[in-house]
Amino acid sequence: MDHAPSAGTTAEPVPAVIGRALDAYRRLGELGEEIADEWQYVTDLVAVHSADLQSLVEAAPDRVLAPAVVAAVDAAIEEIGLITDPHRAIDWLSTFPQVVRVAVAVPLPAGGS
């Protein structure tokens, strides 16, 4: 796998981490596109979720993610890299971006909402 998490993971800027996630996500989409009847659905999911993940970069291009967050995203990237079944890929097209979004989300202030 390209970016397996390791104990030595360091802090990284949002654009680098999201860039890796988007590359992996697009490869997952290409696998899902192998199911001809699902091509439009897959294409639409990839477009919407890719734009959403890119918005995380645009919202905080200078933000640096903690090593634990980088490791979490890299673990998710590694997980989807193991998928070889196009049907399973389609299942993960909605799940993976949400995992990344949760990991990268800006924490709310204590006691705030």
The Cα radius of gyration reads 15 Å
Please describe the biggest sheet, giving its number of strands, its sense, and whether it closes into a barrel: 2 strands, antiparallel
Strand content: under 5%
DSSP helix count?
A: 4
Strand neighbour order, sheet with most strands: 1-2
Roughly how many Å apart are the termini?
38 Å
The total strand number stands at 2
Compute the average pLDDT.
90
Overall SS class: mainly alpha
The residue ranges in which pLDDT falls below 50 over 5 or more consecutive positions are: 1-7
- The helix fraction, in percent, is 55-70%
* Shape field: elongated
Question: Into how many domains do the coordinates divide?
Answer: 1
The ordered string of helix (H) and strand (E) elements is EHHEHH
Notes on the protein architecture:
There is one protein chain. It is built from four helices and two strands, in the order E-H-H-E-H-H. The N terminus is likely disordered. The N and C termini lie far apart (38 Å). The radius of gyration is 15 Å and the shape is elongated. The protein has one domain. The chain has 113 residues and is mainly alpha-helical. 65% of the residues lie in helices and 4% in strands.
